[in-house]
Specification:
The chain is an all-alpha fold. It has one domain. The protein is built from 3 helices and no strands.
Length: 69
């Protein structure tokens, strides 16, 4: 599942979108059975971290998991 539907168009450069997508897919794979609400929460957390300047997919993934309920 792509992260793009959760982002505003033009908000991030292509390199950031690649890193965010990689992190998003990794979290979804790790958590496996996530519903729509949880996927949106994960996406929003990754986007928030990327907004702060993080571009490393591993760190984006860790931030999403660290913040997970």
């Amino acid at each position: 599942m792509p992260i793009r539907p959760f982002m505003q168009p033009g908000a991030f450069e292509p390199e950031a979108i690649v890193a965010m997508s990689e992190a998003f897919e990794a979290v979804l794979k790790e958590l496996q059975d996530t519903g729509d609400v949880m996927r949106e929460v994960i996406a929003r957390r990754i986007i928030a971290e990327a907004t702060l300047g993080e571009r490393d997919p591993v760190r984006l993934r860790e931030a999403a998991l660290r913040l997970s309920p």
